[in-house]
């Protein structure tokens, strides 16, 4: 009889301890972030992330253009030798040179690191956009002038 009572007490104490332990391990409820509206209203007016009201857009790369990056090719080199991007980001290469450009993955001439990263031939004035769907290091060069090179790191 006495053993039964002790056993019952032990079980009750264990259950109580378990409940207390669980209660103390509940994750704290984080307050919800401020509604987006409030954040948007704090942005300075008159700034439009490089997009003009008539629908055209500056090609200038700023930190406001998160997710969209532009790298121009002057005819001898790229405007950025290294760039950090995220999955889903789009990088647009613009050929501002007077000769054709072909952006391709390293190593030259086989382009085996990322065969899918290949612009094909870009005539002067034309551009090519690539959206990254995989993380990794994308070393690239102008296949038609391999000394011009750069690197994009996708995290
Ligand atoms: Cu090449």
Automatic annotation (TrEMBL):
Enumerate the SUPFAM superfamilies for this protein.
Answer: Cupredoxins
Gene3D superfamilies assigned to the protein according to its UniProt record, in alphabetical order = Cupredoxins - blue copper proteins (2.60.40.420)
Could you tell me what this protein is called? EfeO-type cupredoxin-like domain-containing protein
Which organism is the protein's source? Candidatus Vogelbacteria bacterium CG10_big_fil_rev_8_21_14_0_10_51_16
């Amino acid at each position: 009889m006495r053993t039964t009572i002790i056993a019952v007490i032990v079980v009750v104490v264990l259950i109580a301890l378990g409940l207390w332990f669980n209660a103390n391990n509940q994750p704290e409820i984080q307050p919800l972030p401020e509604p987006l509206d409030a954040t948007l209203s704090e942005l300075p007016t008159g700034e439009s992330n490089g997009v003009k009201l008539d629908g055209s857009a500056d090609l200038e790369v700023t930190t406001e253009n998160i997710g969209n990056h532009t790298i121009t090719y002057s005819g001898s080199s790229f405007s950025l030798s290294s760039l950090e991007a995220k999955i889903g980001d789009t990088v647009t290469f613009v050929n501002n040179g007077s000769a054709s450009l072909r952006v391709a993955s390293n190593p030259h001439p086989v382009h085996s690191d990322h065969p899918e990263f290949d612009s094909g031939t870009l005539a002067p004035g034309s551009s090519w956009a690539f959206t990254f769907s995989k993380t990794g290091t994308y070393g690239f060069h102008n296949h038609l002038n391999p000394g011009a090179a750069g690197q994009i790191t996708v995290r």
